[in-house]
Design brief:
Elements (H helix, E strand, L loop, with lengths): L1 H13 L2 E2 L1 H6 L3 E7 L4 H4 L8 E10 L5 E14 L6 E15 L1 H6 L8 E4 L4 E2 H12 L12 H9 L4 H11 L1
Parallel strand pairs: 5-6
Antiparallel strand pairs: 1-7, 2-3, 3-4, 4-5
The structure holds zinc ion.
Zinc ion binds next to helix 6.
């Protein structure tokens, strides 16, 4: 048990943390590559744990004086098609900004009144947790193959006439 604890602590240590406000005001940048297997919440959604993505986080201050983190992510993951339940490749591309706010101004913000989302200006922001959260928010809720490439569509065609009502229903659901 003792050994296991030490190993776990070491793993945690390897995860990068940033002081987000310092990071923004000094225009710092961090980049790297992350294995999907390091992101437990994401693993629940992915079709398999293989693969990785590259990321860059760049701090800055906009013309209004608002501090932000610009996040970009580039990779390829596999989701499960919600129509045929087979694997589907999904390009993981994010290019977004998050404004940094203190708790008071976060509380004062209304919903959806800004171009970008805001997060708490945390002095110990976990880079991987932040990336995982942003990726989760960006993924489609019900991913589906293009209809022509979906196994469910192939099955419908193979069954011919009697399945037509279902084909029509599937079409309606797409729109
Ligand atoms: Zn499918």
């Amino acid at each position: 048990m003792g050994r296991r604890k030490i190993y776990h602590a070491r793993l945690m240590y390897a995860r990068p943390f940033i002081d987000s406000l310092d990071f923004a005001t000094n225009g710092r940048e961090i980049s790297g590559e992350v294995q999907f297997s390091e992101m437990p919440r994401l693993l629940d959604i992915l079709e398999n744990p293989q693969g990785s993505f590259k990321y860059t986080i760049q701090g800055g201050t906009d013309s209004q004086g608002t501090n932000f983190l610009a996040i970009s992510v580039d990779g390829q993951c596999s989701l499960r098609c919600q129509r045929c339940l087979n694997k589907m490749g999904y390009p993981l591309r994010l290019d977004t900004r998050l404004f940094l706010r203190d708790q008071t101004s976060l509380d004062a913000l209304g919903d959806d009144d800004e171009e970008f989302d805001s997060i708490l200006a945390d002095m110990q922001l976990s880079v991987l947790d932040l990336l995982e959260e942003e990726i989760l928010l960006s993924l489609p809720i019900a991913p589906k193959h293009e209809f022509s490439a979906c196994q469910a569509a192939v099955d419908e065609n193979a069954h011919g006439q009697e399945k037509k009502p279902f084909a029509a229903l599937a079409k309606m659901k797409r729109n």
